[in-house]
Amino acid sequence: MLTEDRSPVATPAKPGVSADLRVRVDQDACTGDGLCAQLAPAVFEFDVDGLAYVKDSAGELQTQPGAYVPVPLPLVDAVVDAADECPGTCIYVERPDGTLEAGGPVG
Ligand code: SF4
One Pfam family name from the record (predicted)? Predict the structure, then answer.
């Protein structure tokens, strides 16, 4: 007999983590000025190469090219501000369908 495992509470989202937005940095265009790390230090940090990378919810720097992390809900405004003000226009805040919420090269 097939049974379906249905927990009384369906997979809750992690507290404070948006299920909607994700963010990445294109290091090829990063100027290393540090604005993003000032605005949202929980999400952006420099690696030893002097370029900005995103961090996951455990604070682990994601150094793979094009790595995304979810945008924590309380930090959405700060991350969007960083993307809007990034001098390298190299922060991409994307929706699940890949469309741009903020940042990226100005079209
Ligand atoms: S604000 Fe943009 S250009 Fe400046 S360090 Fe962050 S990702 Fe790089």
Answer: Fer4_15
Domain count, the chain: 1
Q: What is the pTM of this model?
A: 0.82
What's the CA-to-centroid distance between 10 and ligand 1, angstroms?
37
Q: How far apart are the CA of 28 and the centre of ligand 1, in A?
A: 11
Residue 31 Cβ inside 6 Å of ligand 1? The answer reads yes
CATH value at residue 46: 3.30.70.20
Start-to-end C-alpha separation, the chain? 56
- Of 44, 68, 84, best ligand 1 pocket probe by most atoms within 8 Å of the beta carbon: 44
Q: Cβ(105) to ligand 1 under 6 A?
A: no
Q: What is the pLDDT along the chain (107 residues), one digit of tens a residue?
A: 544 544 444 344 445 445 589 999 999 999 999 999 999 999 999 999 999 999 999 999 999 978 999 999 999 999 999 999 999 999 999 999 899 999 998 75
Domain-located, residue 84: yes
Q: Which domain holds residue 93?
A: 17-103
Tokens of 10: 């369906």
Q: Is residue 39 part of a domain?
A: yes
Cα 40 from Cα 38, distance rounded (Å): 6
* Residue 89 resides in a domain: yes
